């Protein structure tokens, strides 16, 4: 049997629109590594057996990303978690160790902070508003709560109030969430006082989506961050630009989480030139 190519990939459902293959295959090519990054669309009942196969010594798979809806669901099938993944209880990166044991990492939180650093936004002492309580909010809240120099406050709103309360209660078992207030109404977020507004919901993916917040509250002294990157300019970001606010979409988060995942798989920092190529590939395809 011919030897299979060194394989990496992303598991999730759906995964077909993922830009991760573009970014990682660009890096492999630039590094002249004979490896391929593939899409692995999985049904929920296939996840366990897929990961069981990855453990086998003849598996060509050496690293994985995990996306919706499996970032929490993969955890029971892993052998170990990084300290951050253990705090967030969400995994977006799996490293296949030399003994084929599987270690779960979360690079979404650090990726978000790396993008904020690039934007020269220091969260220390800032007032932050977060929309949404899904997997992305989980990682971002964990990163913000674990910082040694923390924001002043985080006001969180989610359409399903109980889900936001449940998320904060869960995180509170493993970290100090005293700075987080869950608001039952979007009108209580004090957006007019916020320094940073983060949309982690899927509202904005479609061009006819509404803007969740009252745009008259957005002001020029804030950063509006939408984790959505396609479209590059969501209705929220358009209104924020019109209000004179600084804006950012999630392409930077996608880039940094990918760089950090790659570094976990390779065990080595990526060269600046390779990172530039990865970022350019995202900009080309986004
Ligand atoms: P991700 O992992 O990307 O965060 P997710 O876990 O599916 O994705 O979370 C999607 C988020 O978008 C949730 O906060 C969801 O709110 P609910 O918990 O109420 O479902 C939010 N969301 C999706 N559609 C929405 C809508 N039409 N209005 C408001 N929030 C919405």
Contiguous helical run count: 9
Which ions, cofactors or small ligands are bound in this entry?
Answer: 2'-monophosphoadenosine-5'-diphosphate
Fraction in beta strands: 15-25%
Categorize the overall geometry.
globular
The average pLDDT value, as a whole number, equals 97
**Largest sheet features:** 6 strands, mixed
What is the chain-wise order of helices and strands?
A: EHEHEEHEEHEHEHEEEHEHH
Backbone CA Rg: 19 Å
> What portion of residues is helical?
25-40%
Total number of β-strand segments?
12
Distance between the termini: 38 Å
Low-confidence stretches: none
Spatial strand sequence of the major β-sheet: 2-1-3-5-6-4
- Briefly note the structural class of the backbone: alpha/beta
Describe what this molecule looks like in 3D.
The strands form two sheets. A six-stranded mixed sheet has the order 2-1-3-5-6-4. Helix 1 runs antiparallel to helix 9, helix 4 (108-118) crosses helix 8 and helix 8 (251-266) crosses helix 9. The chain is 34% helix and 20% strand. The protein is α/β, with parallel strands linked by helices and 286 residues long.
């Amino acid at each position: 049997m011919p030897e299979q190519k060194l394989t990496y990939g992303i598991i999730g459902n759906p995964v077909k629109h993922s830009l991760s293959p573009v970014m990682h295959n660009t890096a492999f090519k630039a590094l002249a590594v004979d490896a391929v990054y593939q899409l692995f669309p999985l049904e929920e009942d296939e996840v366990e057996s897929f990961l069981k196969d990855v453990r086998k010594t003849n598996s060509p798979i050496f690293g994985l990303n995990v996306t919706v809806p499996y970032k929490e669901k993969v955890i029971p099938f892993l052998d170990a978690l990084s300290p951050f993944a253990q705090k967030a209880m969400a995994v977006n990166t799996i490293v296949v160790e030399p003994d084929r044991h599987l270690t779960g990492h979360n690079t979404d939180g650090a990726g978000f902070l790396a993008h904020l650093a690039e934007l020269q936004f220091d969260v220390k002492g800032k007032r932050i508003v977060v929309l949404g309580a899904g997997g992305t909010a989980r990682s971002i809240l964990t990163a913000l709560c674990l910082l040694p120099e923390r924001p002043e406050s985080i006001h969180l709103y989610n359409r399903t109030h109980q889900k936001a309360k449940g998320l904060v209660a869960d995180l509170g078992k493993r970290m100090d969430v005293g700075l987080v207030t869950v608001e039952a109404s979007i009108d209580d977020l004090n957006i007019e006082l916020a320094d940073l507004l983060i949309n982690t919901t899927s509202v904005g993916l479609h061009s006819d989506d509404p803007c969740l917040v009252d745009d008259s509250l957005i002001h020029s002294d804030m950063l509006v961050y939408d984790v959505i990157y396609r479209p590059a300019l969501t209705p929220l970001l358009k209104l924020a630009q019109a209000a004179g606010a600084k804006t950012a979409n999630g392409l930077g988060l996608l880039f940094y989480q990918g760089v950090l995942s790659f570094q976990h798989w390779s065990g080595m920092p990526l060269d600046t030139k390779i990172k530039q190529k990865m970022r350019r590939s995202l900009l080309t395809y986004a």
